[in-house]
Amino acid sequence: MNMTKTFSRYIITISSLILISCLGTLKDQDGNILKMTRIGDMVWMSENLNVSHFRNGDEIPQAKSPEEWARMGFEGKPAWCYGLNNPDNSNKYGRLYNWYAVNDPRGIAPKGWHVASDEEWTQFIDLLGDEVLAAMFMRGPGLSEKGNKSGNTGFKFPPAGARDSNGGYFNTGSHGYWWSATEVSDSDAWGRLLNYVQCNIYSIGNAKTAGFSVRCIRD
Predict the structure, then answer these.
(1) What is the domain extent for residue 113?
(2) pLDDT tens track for 130-167
(3) Higher-scoring residue by pLDDT: 60, 36
(4) What are phi and psi of 79, to 5 degrees?
(5) How far apart are CA 54 and CA 37, in angstroms?
(6) Can you tell me the distance from the alpha carbon of 130 to that of 12, in angstroms, rounded to the nearest whole number?
(7) In angstroms, rounded to a whole number, what is the distance separating the alpha carbons of residues 151 and 141?
């Protein structure tokens, strides 16, 4: 990469960061108080979703074992779980959801919000310059057991890892995975993978039966 192109990207990123500002808080359907951050023309939740109810008050089923997680996914039913089945992890990472919970018509996002689409994730990354620069911002100054520290914006992109279709956990503490609201096919949906070690963020198509974090945007 030539120096002119690199310099231009950093100028774009610095200019974009000027457009990032904290906007106060919102309350989700479980009563959690979450911070909001404006990025360009979009308003994002500053934290991962951490709810056990849909917007209408119905419970989202919890999968407490690998067998339950695999069965719910096989049956195409919505499910959530704690990272590593440890309730303490919800404070650090939020909860993990299969895509059937993300796409349920009862709505997993609070009123006036929606799960970020693949296009909206792309817009977010483009505002920050490119995948590497976006990952640098999202990752913050380093890995931490208390989550990451993304500058002074209040944004948190913790390395929650993920859960596979059979109920196994992987990459907790080194990678973050987020669903988008966009399908790839009947069996797969688009998501984003943030690699904290290599400092890059990728678009990935993954089985809807997997467990990822969820991030929402204001309508």
Answers:
(1) 3-218
(2) 888 888 888 875 444 444 444 445 678 999 999 999 99
(3) 60
(4) -155, 155
(5) 23
(6) 10
(7) 8
